[in-house]
Write a structure and sequence with these properties.
heterotrimer; A alpha/beta; B mainly alpha; C alpha+beta; A: Rossmann fold; five-stranded parallel beta sheet; 7 strands; B: mainly alpha; Cytochrome-c3 Hydrogenase, chain B; three-stranded antiparallel beta sheet
Chain lengths: 181, 405, 239
């Protein structure tokens, strides 16, 4: 087993060698979600949890409606200005390690609600790891995003990424191990 | 007597005085479909006071409509009641068509009816499924979502998108029905019946479900009228108001269907009204499939309203100009004000349009059914227990996009 | 059916019914602001009319009309006869119609929304506060002179630098898709209909001209210049 070394950066303790890989593997296969569902994307979120697309086979089914108990904050739907403080507070209450998925165009960039009442993307308020474009995104895109997130968790990569469209199935994310196809 | 006994005799009711506890539910809460905040004052478990605070999904629909053309409202309208988007599309198209005083061809009317009713049954699937899930019955939720996916498959084949299709157009629809449309719909109908039956078997004699739904969240007829409640919620209180029957639009007057009406106005009645409405909608769909002509135009034949065919746009000058004007300026409507209403998933969905004669709407007001349904929720919840908020709120079917616009 | 409502109101109030209309099949009656509550209450209480089912209450903003800026519109229906009626009044900016929250409970939230969106206060309303927007919001968005993209964030925006994303609709961007620029129209300027023509005539910029877009472009180019020596075959950066 490796030795414990404290490495600077976010107060995280990074354990070297295979223990870290094991931890990341365990984390990625049992993600507890906090579904911050506001709008239409919630319907596709429900469909992703439904039998056909079945997010449960990724171990990511369990919704925990307490930020203290969840790993991934799924921001699903439009975030209005009035909702901003609520999102911020919930994200702050989550314990590390935490990830954020911006589900849908409204959460990614405000969508076509470019007006006085919509926050143009939840990343104006909290940092986001995976952006899923789509209005609403198909459940397949959501599963792609989940697989992308899992890859990032395994690689301990915090760089934000947008889920690319699946143009050629063989080069879908997760198949070749790269992010962009 | 012991001094302690004396005390007890003097104050026979030894009560611990307590201030009501103020609790915040939402805006992000598992039981709040969509997003809403309730500030409740509790005395023990009983609700003493309740302030429902909507508006967390206010997306500026009405202001956004004022800066596009009449046709550019369709995507915004879709996202109003996003569980039954086709009904909103059709409602908006009918509103502008009322202003223009035109009527779409018969085949289009049947097409709109069938797609609208498919949307309505997906709305009721979602509402009843979520209601059941919140009371702990996860299985019927999954079954209803399974059949909802099949309905969405049909909608995807027809419109191109599973939900929020933006398929309606003023003067018709975006595309004619596909070749296999009728077969697809007829194939799904027995599955719908099967799942509704299975849900009934699962839930209707379940002691826990009955206790949590019956007698809970009661709304009286007078309250419903005063609050402006319409739709399944009004029908559960005994008001037999259904826009499809009372003010028939499209071809609804040609169909033979019933309107389920409840008696007590409690959660149970709302659940059963919605379940029965699924069956009635399927009846309408079956009759519409039978009556729908297999050929004929879908769009009104008026170049001032409907885009010309793409082939013509690229080859003839008249079509190019017509297309240009329709896209750039929007279609011209007469100056005036109109209120058009249809039966949305939650009740009377009305569009109050003010036009100044140009291609841009001057004012669009959507009369949201669940806005007034939600206002009435306070009456239903006061005096009840905090655990009753869950089923009651679920049965209001508050769709954030429609409520807050 | 609804014509009977108009006739009854005419019979009861005579001179105080300013106009009636039947356009597009919708029956409508216009009264003065001071008669608003009385007529509405009569509609509910009268044995013939019995307008007990509240439908909607809203307002329309006509900033260019000198006589009265706002129209307040009430729609009700009778559950007994099935008749519908639209009642309208005109209100100047600052005038307060009487509240109908005591007559129909649904008017409570409808009037709060009209206050929130238009700034029309209702005299006698039990709870006049904003409903769709937050209390810190200044202004009334559905007024024509409120610019659509003027946001008032509650949480200050953070800097998004780790992903290449155009802030599409920043506060300084203007509205690229708008048909009518109300700000310029109300200040006596032009009323351009088509955004393309507006750009041609120099009345508005395109999104790609804006400062924000140029910053993002500069960032992308800087990064491409950095990566170019290493990575000749593929570009990984999004646009």
């Amino acid at each position: 087993m490796g030795e414990l070394r404290v490495i600077d950066g976010g107060g995280e303790v990074a354990v070297t060698t295979r223990l870290s890989d094991l931890l990341q593997w365990a984390r990625k296969w049992s993600l507890f979600q906090y579904p911050f569902v506001t709008a239409c994307c919630g319907m596709e979120f429900m469909s992703t949890a439904a039998p056909r697309y079945d997010i449960a086979r990724f171990g990511a089914e369990a919704p925990r409606f307490s930020p203290r108990q969840s790993d991934v904050l799924w921001v699903v739907g439009t975030i209005s200005q009035r909702q901003g403080p609520a999102v911020r507070r919930i994200w702050e209450q989550m314990a590390d390690p935490k990830w954020v998925v911006a589900f849908g165009t409204c959460a990614s960039c405000g969508g076509f609600y470019d007006n006085y009442t919509t926050i143009p993307g939840v990343d104006k308020v909290i940092p986001v790891d995976v952006y899923i474009p789509g209005c609403p995104p198909r459940p397949e895109a959501v599963l792609d995003a989940l697989m992308l997130l899992q890859d990032k968790i395994q690689a301990n990569d915090r760089k934000p990424i947008v889920v690319p469209p699946r143009l050629v199935p063989e080069r879908a994310p997760g198949r070749t191990g790269e992010g962009n196809s | 007597m012991e001094p302690a006994d004396e005390l007890l005799n003097d104050q026979a009711s030894l009560e611990l005085s307590a201030d009501p506890m103020r609790l915040n539910m939402g805006p992000s809460h598992p039981a709040m479909h969509g997003t809403i905040r309730m500030v409740i004052d509790l005395d023990g478990e009983t609700l003493v006071n309740l302030d429902v605070q909507p508006g967390y999904l206010h997306r500026g629909f009405e202001k956004s409509c004022e800066r596009g053309t009449w046709a550019q409202v369709f995507p915004y309208a879709d996202r109003l009641n996003y569980v039954s988007p086709m009904l909103n599309n059709v409602g908006w198209a009918l509103a502008v068509e009322k202003l223009l005083e035109i009527e779409v061809p018969e085949r289009c009317q049947y097409y709109r009816v069938i797609l609208g009713e498919l949307a309505r049954i997906s709305d009721h699937f979602t509402c009843n499924g979520a209601s059941a899930m919140e009371l702990g019955a996860f299985t019927p939720f999954l079954w209803l979502l399974k059949v909802r996916d099949w309905v969405w498959d049909i909608l995807e084949r027809e419109t191109g998108a599973r939900m929020t299709h933006s398929f309606g157009r003023i003067g018709g629809m975006a595309a004619p029905p596909t070749v296999n449309f009728k077969d697809d719909v007829l194939r799904v109908i027995p599955e719908v019946h099967k799942v509704v039956k299975e849900t009934e078997i699962m839930l209707l004699r379940n002691r826990i479900f009955l206790d949590r739904m019956q007698g809970v969240g009661v709304l009286t007829k007078a309250q419903a009228l005063s609050y402006g409640v319409t739709g399944p919620m009004a029908r559960s209180t005994g008001i037999p108001y259904d826009v499809r029957k009372d003010h028939p639009y499209l071809v609804y007057d040609r169909f033979d269907f019933d309107v389920p009406v409840g008696e007590d106005g409690d959660n149970w009645d709302r659940f059963m009204v919605r379940l029965e409405e699924i069956r009635q909608s399927v009846r309408i769909i079956e009759q519409a499939i039978e009556q729908m002509p297999d050929d004929g135009p879908i769009n009104v034949d008026d170049p001032r309203i409907v885009y010309p065919e793409k082939d013509d746009v690229y080859t003839t000058i008249e079509a190019t100009i017509a297309h240009f004007k329709l896209v750039m300026e929007g279609l011209r409507t007469p100056k005036g004000e109109v209120y058009s209403f249809t039966e949305g998933g939650n009740g009377e969905l009305g569009f109050h349009i003010v036009s100044d004669g140009s291609g841009t709407p001057y004012r669009v007001r959507v009369r949201p059914p669940c806005w007034y349904n939600l206002a009435a929720a306070r009456e239903m919840l006061l005096g009840g227990m905090i655990a009753d908020i869950i089923p009651t709120f679920g049965s209001v079917n508050m769709i954030g996009g429609e409520c807050d616009r | 059916m609804s014509q009977a409502v108009v006739d009854r109101l005419n019979a009861q109030f005579g001179e105080r019914v300013l106009e009636t209309s039947d356009a597009f099949g919708d029956h409508e009656v216009v009264v003065a602001l001071k008669d608003w509550v009385e007529v509405a209450q009569f509609m509910k209480d009268d044995g013939d009319l019995q307008m007990d089912h509240f439908i909607d209450l809203t307002a329309v903003d006509y900033p260019e009309r000198e006589s009265a800026r706002f129209d307040v519109v009430l729609m009700t229906r009778s559950s007994v006869t099935g008749a519908r009626i639209r009642l309208r009044t005109h209100a100047k900016d600052g005038e307060e119609p009487g509240s109908l929250a005591g007559t129909w409970s649904g008017a409570n939230w409808a009037e709060r929304e009209v206050w929130d969106m238009f700034g029309i206060k209702f005299n006698g309303h039990p709870d006049m506060r904003r409903i769709l927007l937050y209390e810190e919001f200044v202004g009334h968005p559905l007024r024509k002179d409120y610019p659509i993209d003027k946001a008032q964030p509650l949480v200050p925006y953070r800097e998004v630098s780790d992903i290449d994303k155009l802030p599409p609709f920043g506060i300084e961007e203007g509205q690229p898709f708008a048909r009518i620029d109300w700000e310029s129209r109300l200040s006596g300027g032009d009323n351009q209909v088509s955004p393309a023509l507006g750009v041609q005539q120099g009345q508005r910029r395109t999104l790609s001209d804006s400062e924000a877009a140029q910053q993002v472009q500069a960032r992308i180019e800087a990064r491409m210049a950095q990566e170019a020596p290493e990575d000749a075959a593929e570009e990984g950066s999004g646009e």
